[in-house]
Write a structure and sequence with these properties.
Pfam families: DUF4190. This is DUF4190 domain-containing protein. InterPro entries: DUF4190. The chain crosses the membrane at residues 12-38, 59-83. Keywords: Membrane, Transmembrane, Transmembrane helix. The structure is a single chain. The chain has one domain. It has three helices and no strands. By secondary structure, it is mainly α. Helix 1 (8-22) runs parallel beside helix 3 (53-83). The protein has helices at residues 8-22, 27-48, 53-83.
């Protein structure tokens, strides 16, 4: 196989963003890290000719989804705690 290598930041950003969806509370931090890595990856991909732009885009979207889910569950948890 002689294909271009995948960008490491895109891979790590995707994995971290995916983990952020499933890890409670600390997932917000993971999502931010994933978003930052996935925003940096396309610039490196253009400069180096590597692959992984779709992976970076998917990681970015997953990071956004993770933040929204984490904030939703945090708000619901606090509301449930205060309702008691």
């Amino acid at each position: 196989m002689t294909g271009a290598a995948y960008n490491v930041k895109a891979i790590i950003g995707f994995i971290v963003s995916l983990l952020a969806v499933f890890v409670p509370v600390f997932g917000i931090v993971l999502a931010i890290i994933g978003i930052v890595l996935c925003k940096m990856a396309p610039k490196e991909i253009v400069l180096s000719g590597e692959e992984g732009s779709a992976l970076a885009k998917a990681g970015f979207i997953l990071g956004i989804i993770a933040i929204v889910l984490q904030l939703f569950f945090l708000i619901v948890g606090v509301a449930a705690f205060l309702a008691v």
